[in-house]
Design goal:
Helix content: 40-55%
Order of helices and strands: HHHHHHEHEEHEEEEEHEEEEEH
Radius of gyration: 29 Å
Number of strands: 13
Number of helices: 10
Strand order of the largest sheet: 8-7-6-10-9
Shape: elongated
Distance between the termini: 78 Å
Mean pLDDT: 84
Low-confidence stretches: none
Structural class: alpha+beta
Largest sheet: 5 strands, antiparallel
């Protein structure tokens, strides 16, 4: 029995180390697990030595050894169970693929489908730099991560940056207004989640709205929205630069979400952003000169809502 448990113990030890090695190879930080396995090995080994010494005078040496192996096996299975949550990452073949997988999994838990674009260089990024969150490698050829960050600051871009690097000493030049953190290329999902939590909180505090469309989801500042127009069951979000975005929410859902944030349902098909309201007559005149309809029965309520909106702003 003791010999059988020793074989099981070696098998579980090998299995656990193999899982940790795979996760380590793709760039996951496994230091805590490696230390825990080392402690289990050392404890089992030392306890066995101690009990074998006792066993010279004791008939229960086999019981002692069986208990040591059983305890070690159970501890290894606990670690394996803990490692099982990383199974979704085991098949990835690079740090970049691992990072994308962690990001997708993070947003999946929040029922958000992010559009993830991978750029081969800093130059390629600047062909289409309009992104909310950028995981940026410091060590790139030609236009490196620091240069990309500096250029974004010159453009006054609001892209939130998380740097990735293999060398801690490169971080000293990577600080900046929109930099939220640094990932050394032995990463844990918790680290990535920590930075994404901070970025989403920052976006919310900046009064951003998450717009879910047919193909992608985008954060847009409230102030950029002129109005929301109902199109059957869906909506068009009209922005101050005259761009429009498709939304799969109904006008009623948008009204429920935004009426406490300075929007008002002025017509059954129009939700106006009071920030852009310039004048109310037969129609509503917006800050860009555009006019949208206002229901006759709602005109007085729109004026009251606007006065209350201004009162809140000046408090």
């Amino acid at each position: 029995m003791e010999r059988d448990l020793a074989i099981v113990y070696q098998s579980e030890l090998y299995k656990t180390k193999k899982i940790i090695s795979k996760l380590n190879n793709i760039g996951l930080n496994t230091t805590n697990y490696e230390n825990a396995v080392y402690d289990i090995e050392e404890t089992c080994r030392n306890n066995n030595k101690e009990d074998l010494r006792k066993g010279l005078d004791s008939p229960f040496v086999v019981d002692y050894l069986e208990a040591n192996y059983s305890k070690a096996i159970n501890s290894l299975k606990v670690i394996q169970k803990e490692l099982s949550k990383y199974e979704i990452y085991i098949k990835v073949d690079s740090f970049t693929t691992l990072l994308k997988s962690i990001i997708k999994n993070y947003f999946k838990g929040r029922e958000i489908e992010p559009e993830i674009v991978e750029y081969g260089s800093g130059e390629e990024f600047f062909r289409k730099p309009d992104v909310e969150i950028l995981f940026l490698d410091i060590e790139m050829n030609a236009l490196d991560g620091i240069m990309v960050k500096n250029e974004l600051q010159k453009l006054q871009a609001e892209t939130r940056i998380v740097f990735t690097t293999s060398h801690n000493d490169l971080m000293r030049d990577a600080f900046g207004k929109q930099v939220f953190g640094f990932l050394v290329k032995r990463v844990s999902p918790k680290e990535v989640e920590k930075y994404l939590n901070a970025i989403l909180k920052d976006l919310e505090e900046e009064n951003c709205v998450l717009i879910k469309g047919a193909e992608k989801e985008t954060f847009v500042k409230e102030k950029q929205i002129l109005y929301i127009k109902a199109e059957t069951k869906y909506c068009d979000i009209i922005l101050e630069n005259q761009d429009s975005m498709f939304s799969d929410k109904s006008i009623g859902e948008w009204a429920e979400e935004l009426e406490e944030r300075g929007f008002f349902l002025c017509h059954r098909s129009y939700l106006v952003n009071l920030y852009h309201l310039k004048k109310i007559e037969d129609d509503i005149l917006l800050s860009n000169g555009e006019k949208i309809p206002v229901s006759r029965r709602l005109k007085t309520k729109v004026k009251e809502a606007y006065r209350e909106y201004i009162r809140k702003k000046v408090r």
